[in-house]
Amino acid sequence: MSTHDLPEATEHRLEELEHGLFTSDLSVNEFLLVKEAGFHPVGLVMGSSIYHTGIQTRKWGQSQELTKLTEAMYNARELAMTRMEEEAAQLGADGVVGVRLDVNYYEWGKDAAEFIAVGTAVKAEDGVSRRNQLGKPFTSDLSGQDFWTLSQTGFAPQGLVMGTCVYHIAHRGIGQTLASTGQNVELPNFTQALYEARELAMTRMQDESTRLGATGIVGVRLEEKSHQWGSHIIEFLALGTAVAATGAPVTLAKPTTIISLDH
Amino acid sequence: MTSSTGPGADERAGAFTSALSAADFAACLALGLEPIGLVQGLCAMQSTSFGRGVFSLATPMAPSGGYLANYPCPHGFVTGEHRPFGQNYEQTWLGHAWRDGYGTARTRLVDAARALGADGVVGVVEAETALADSGVLEFSLRGTAVRVAPGGLGTAEPFTTYLSGQRLAKAFEAGLAPVSIVGSFVSVRVWASCVTEFLLGGSPLQTWSSPSGPVEIDQLADAHARGRELVRDDARAQLRGGHLRAARLEIVERELGPGDIEIQARLRGNSLRPVGEAVALATPQPTLRLS
Amino acid sequence: MSDPRPVPPDLPALVRAALSTTEDGARGAPTTSDLSIDEELSLHALAWEPVALTTGYAVVAVPAGAWQWGQGEIDVASSAHERAFTQALRRLESDVARTGAHGVVGVSIEREVAPSHIAVAVMGTAVRPRGAGARKGTPFVTDLSARDFARLVASGWEPLGLATGASFVYAPRRSIGTALAQQSQNVELTNFTDALYGARERAVERLQRSAMSYQGAGIVEVKLEEGPLRFASHAVGFAAWGTVVRLAGDQHLPMSPTLVVSLDDETRAFEAQTLE
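Predict the joint structure of the above. Result:
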């Protein structure tokens, strides 16, 4: 299955949506706020990829990036994202909000995982295209609430950007462990490894946003997961929504300060 | 319990006890209700088969009153392995025992509140404990006795409610006054007919061709529907002029053996009585929190 | 959610009066509700009222052998799920219609997928505009909370019903040869992608088709859940459901939210992270 070949059921489903029905996994509040921001939901869009990650040898005592795993994690998410974007493009959407990227593991698939991207495709109600500079629908992991707030600040989302780095953190030799037992010492190579891995993930994310001509990234999250690799292999995943100024005036009202009485 | 704070006692004579949180306590005072003391009502009930079902008869137990429905075998076989008929029946003795136990605990809670000169009990919490395999079910109700400040109204029948704090305050604002806590329990036993048993996968019997398309298991669906209906009807009968509010219905299905299922329905809630005209509430203002 | 209303100063007087009166306050038949008091007040502000706690339940048999490893979609499971879900909703609707209510909100949905059967239990509080008579036609069903229902109605929309769809599939088999060849490589398992992606799409497609019968504008709060399939590790199932909505009047009414900044201490400024 190529990225340009969505499953048969997708074609059916998207054709049905062209008759005017929309589907959306937005909550009522999010739905109303997306409307408030001048957009209308057109359909629930998703992309999926079941990916087998290869094996990479690593040295017990060496901290290093596992490029093969990095590649796998990136490619699989990219496949899922691209398919979701294609579904959105097919619906004539301007963008996708509330994107969730999940990884599922199933009992039947060793070393394989399902990467899935789900979101709600939206279209501007004024008919003016809000696609990004690549001519593709923008994607964003912002909630309906954040999407509305962002729209009031004169910025518009350009794309969900991500960078990942799978890193092997060296096991320490027995000698080293003994030498440092009972002492408070910094473990320089440990610090260095974590630092480098995060840095790589963040840089890759920033590169993606540059390609979109974005002026910044909002809502950046840095997730650290060991998935099913054991504790010394960690994936650092940086995720955020790249945004660009639209030139529209800032209409965000000054917030009221409240103290809530409920608990 | 606060024995020092009897009816009419000076409120400064003894410290009150209360299980309310600070916020609920504050809300109580804002309502003009002053906490007097912690009160409780207990009752332990013995019944034939609370706890695990001990049931190994080949034919179902004849029910005594209550819901009963027969599901005859459409095949007319008479063999040792083929069930001649199936039955759904309400285990009335369990329902009676549960409801008696709950009712008695509630009466004792109210009695304890009255003895303190309270007008009501707020923030009732309850525990229902089955003493393992002994067929004993223990009910424990606890709450904070309150009276209308100052001095109390000398209510003959103090109210009880699971609500407390802001929720109770909002109920009053909505024109609802508490009457009583309400609890009910119904147990329905399903003794599967040969058809039901087959559909549930209990038997490999294949003497009739299975019809095309999905087949509903009517006997089990009937039992579920009737269990819910019976427990609602019983709760409605306890309302004493109020409406059942903030209720919770819980369903437990247990398989006691092949083709032998028990469905328990528990319903608890508050009987609230409309008083006067409801205070008209403004349409809430939508807000968005910037964090 | 914060409540900007000040506490009325006469609350103690209100309470005293409410508890002193001995009038039998119940007007009409007693009503039942599992809504929280907050939710009831959301309805109250909309001039709606709860009528009765209503339920629906259905259980459908799955033929023996359905879960044995095969190819493609497990049709009997998909159709059993659909049948159980729609029958449970139909029973809920007739329960609601019996009470004279206009619809049911806050519907909880419990699904059980067992080797031999699929059961769906639904429950919610039937509601109607205060004092209104019975409504013509089928009552609406929604899993939206009373609060969300109120927000939706205040914005000019109305719920029409609950749409559902499901699809169960077998996980494809991989030949030993393929498995070995792929051992060390990064590769997409396209037949698996096809199966699972296809199943998700079919579940949502069926959801859309069931929504069309309501003639609504769209479906909000679509839930797309996996399983539950605890007994069959070689099969995967997806079920989708959501509330069909449409504009009740001519246009969408904007709500213009007020921005607030909370002074509560609920967000921790600093959160320590551990690696494992």
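DSSP finds six helices and nine strands in chain C.
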